[in-house]
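ok so I'm stuck.
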Amino acid sequence: MSNETKPFVVLITMDRETSSIVFTRSDGKEARFPLHASPFTDTSALSSLSYTPSFDALLAVTRAGDDIAFELPKQGGGDQLADRLVVYLDQNQWSALANALHDTGGVTDEDRDAALHLTEWVRQGKVILPASAGHYYETAKWSKTDKRYRLGLTILQLSRGWQMRDPLQVRRDELHAALRRQVTGMAGTPIPAVFTLAPNVLHSARERTTDISPPGFQPAAAFQHEALTSATALIDVMLDSERLEPGPDIGWTEATQRFSDWLDSEDIDSRQKRKHIDASLLSDFQTEIVDEARAAGISSEQLHHWKEKQAIEDIRSLPATGLFCEILRDRHLNKGIIWKRNDLIDTVYLSCAAGYASFVVCEGQMASFSKQGIRRLKRSTQVFRKIRDAVPVIEEALAASRNRSAGLEA
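replied:
not stuck anymore, here's the structure
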């Protein structure tokens, strides 16, 4: 009786150049079939897409010969973080990382060494650097094609498919849990993981289309199809040769500036100003609060009582939403503050990241406001202004984790 294992498929590749789909076996042999529906558009930077039959990894190769490896999610949403530290980089820090790794000049040895350390920890599976919709938006709208490609490639290669869930969806999830717990006394379903490999979480579920799987797919196949489609779209959109046009100005900056200017002009103390700010925040959250109260089965009377008696304190306790409110309060109380259009994106994304990540690295002003809020709320996330400042502390955290593991094994 033979003990030889029969050859099996180890890799499936969609190849742009030959317009074929290639099945590679464990013995190295290949079978090629025509690729009737090509996923590669004229502006796509991709040359091939490969994935394993187990659907645990996706490899994209660009037309420039660069590799991008994405981890793929498991059906059922099991924990794939595996105790890795989460380090969230602001957009300017991703730019600094790309400059250091691609040796664009003007980078100090200290910054380059820090970038290499962080990159090595990602490759060793000790740290994840999640990407957010903010990163995709900010990168894809760059007008300089070569710089946009280099930055997008860096984010894709080092995020490895890890994403931060849409902060507005996280806000809804937090409000729903708080309302259900505080008003009804019943615990709601746990908030979905904020840093995840799950497909299609970069944007709110309310903005997504219905199931895109072909008819007749079994649940496992439908999930694999969604995961592959989501991961491929993220890579393709980020590297597309055509830039994304910036969205319209929604008037947030002007309205926020008017409110800050009005607070400055009023002859009231900081406690009274905070009350005005809190009222403004509750007004801004009105739609989400009403929607999530309805979903939690809360009556209008219960909701009114909650808003009057405990809403501000409950919201303050929420990891992301509470920090968002703290940052906005501090900015409004900072007399003479000048609001810029990008402040909304920075505040929304960085407060969400700081609510759940181990470390956040961001520009100076946002770092200051984030630190103040974190300190006041007694949170544990550490915020830094430079990657080189964060790396020694991350290294200490990794060493502490190794020591704990060694103690448990002993």
